[in-house]
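Trying the structure run again after the queue cleared.
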Amino acid sequence: MKKIEITETVLRDGHQSLAATRMKTEEMLPILEQMDQAGYYSIECWGGATFDACLRFLEEDPWNRLRQLRRHIKNTKLQMLLRGQNLLGYRHYADDVVEYFVQKSIADGIDILRIFDAFNDLRNVKTAVRAAKREGAEVQLAMAYTTGSAYTLDYWKQLATDMENMGADSLCIKDMAGILTPDAVSKLVPALKEAVSLPIQLHSHCTSGIAPITYLRGVEAGCDRIDTAISPFALGTSQPSTEVMAETLRGTPFDTGLKQSTLAEIADHFRPVRDRFFADGTLDPKLLSVDMKTLLYQVPGGMLSNLVSQLKEQNAMDKFYEVLEEIPLVREDLGEPPLVTPSSQIVGTQAVLNVLTGERYKVMSQETKRILHGDYGRTVKPFNREIQKKAIGEALPITCRPADLLAPELETLAKAVEGFKEQEEDVLSYALFPQVAADFFKRRAARVNGINPDCCDYENKAYPV
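Done. Tokens:
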């Protein structure tokens, strides 16, 4: 008998993948006690794109959301997704910022940090791992799964071994685009079990439609935990359904122990939330369809929903499939990295630029140039030299750990928000998203003082940018 443990993702990846991370805290709170009693191993509720979305779109303080979740979920471990040296932003941050962010995340309620690097460059996760271990949190290191000639079983085994040696408490196979096939997982999980003695967790998406079968084969091959989303926010570009996987494993040696009556109550709460997203267009039905071509495009769920939004804003949805076909070409030029934040957004944006301008790399984003300069780390394959030269000219690319070149930032950041902060965590919000956080601070203060934040008189007050 081997009980399979479940991580519920509806509070983070479920709505990030389907609804561009637009679920409000107030839509979560009424069901949290029931979720706490469901029997999940953990509830993924923070990190990823939730931080940015809270500040930018929802007029919420992400730190306050975390503290509220912790107050209502007292028995189940709270889990977050952390992008190593990128934290939850889109550049590498100095070590002192990373250490402080990890410390505050744990202090405010996080039990498990799933830490990864978009390039699987472990130099970029070591500071976050060290900080999390020092604070006594559970560290799960995630390998960003992808395919390609360099990504052999030996590659994954060596990566897992290196992760165990770094101090990981568990490992996650992070299949962002739903490209891990049943046959591949039946080989990968035993290979990892041979290489390390850590619990193995499986994370996938239903973009290609095969994830539930992959989960079953992964469990049979020795996987210990799986990520699922309650049914209203499952399938499509999200995870397999919690209810379906619980029922699939019921009565087998891998029974999860989750009760359908409890899961039904949770699903009933989130169904009208999903319906709101359908009604206002946030959840596009396209994201719920099966597309086997994802095995070629390797587009993660969150990236796909953002891509749809981006093209809609440009009135260019007719270019959707043309952009998808461009994505693997850009990925090859950029060293064939796994497509996961931030590499997925960078590759996706560059593919959009290539298609909409009608000429490949006629316009190159600053982030694309930074990848080609080595600012994000080491890719498994070399860059397209011609494109790299176009991006950085005669400049020498970075070969060391990128964060080694960054001076400490915390003291300067703290001074920038000195007159505006209401909590210690504000300096971290500002560190990650300076302009967005500055605007949020302004609007927060306006609400507290009963002032219309759009009032011209209030705009005269200086805020950090």
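The radius of gyration is 21 Å. Worth checking whether this holds up in the mutant runs.
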